[in-house]
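#dry-run=false #mode=assembly
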Amino acid sequence: MKILIADDELISRRLLQKTLERAGYEVTAVENGRLAAEQLCPPEGPRLALLDWVMPELDGPGVCREVRKRNVQSYVYLVLLTSKESKGDVVAGLESGADDYLTKPFDPEELKARLRTGLRVLNLEDRLVEAREQMRFQATHDGLTTLWNRGVIVDLLRRELERSRREHVSTAILMCDLDHFKSVNDTNGHLAGDDVLRETAKRLLSSVRSYDFVGRYGGEEFLVVLNNCNPAYALARADEIRKAIAHFPVQTSSGPVSVTMSLGLLLSHEWGCLPLEELLQQADAALYAAKAAGRNCVKVAMPKIVPGGPALQAHEPLRMRR
Amino acid sequence: MKELEKVSSNLTFDHGELLARVDNDRELLHDLLTIFKEEFPRHLQALREAVDSGDGKRVAVAAHGLKGMLLNVAAGQAAAAAGRLEQMGCRGEASGFQKAFLAFERDAMTLLPQLDACMAEVH
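#status=ok
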């Protein structure tokens, strides 16, 4: 465990350093508060620190305040070490953000015990952060494929559409559906079906740019959002995705399974300011058109004026079995 | 360490406490005493100048530094004298600086040869 010692007094520094190195700490020692704050404020800095109260440049409580001001995830456990001992000093030290307070000259065993307390606090904090991150991941990702879940991918699409409208660029919406997936499950079992879904997710991710979004929209349905892309790129990318899925069989627990994918493509700039829900409907309609055209292909949602009807309409929804 | 124990009576520093603090590490003890010997005169001079200036804040800062050094070598008596000067400095009691400084200097002068002897033993 890394620990920072900040003390302007050389004997103290040397004594603390040796005591803590013996106890297994990786010690960095500095001689003033400014250097201490510089070491502690970056996210990768030490998470344990022993700070002398009276130091040049910046005193111990000043270092505590600077460390607490920063807005990073990991907590730093701060112990003030000083020969001051009045109650007012203790209160001021703790109010500045210190976690503990030790009076000089320190007793080595007490020092080590207090630092072990600090380690327990940091360990607990790590576990809480990990649990929170796990919950955050579970709340935003699909458990099987680890892609964004439906709620998140739709939200990301909404934000991307708003941005593309502001910046007058086009966002491509790809509604993708595995062909005959029910028969994959029926023939090979649901475990093999899960393998196919996982592998499909991998192939989708590897077929798009790092800043595009891929989510699981439904059972075997996926939504891909290609940010800031022109129509030619979008169509080429959609076909690359189709090929990536069909190119070679998926290795499943029941052996290799060949799958194909149908895709409906919609380019946002061609559709004016229609609401998100309607754009999704139109992308879905294009997907159904791809299914109707024999599957394993891409169809583009084409806006057209319908007299007396909605301002823009694409393919008639074809409610055929996918 | 046996030799050290023989000379522990009448010392103005706590020999046992000092050994415990370094976990009986003779090399570390030697290092600390070497640092002390090198640093102490400079700090003492800074305190002397602060006392002569009559500036309470300077006296408090210089005395505080010396107190810390002395506590680290378990020299409680001299550390207490430095602590008194620190308090007087904080309160701005300039009229008592010279007398308190002389008392501190006397304690320090008694301590230094004892630390020298200790250093020679651990070398």
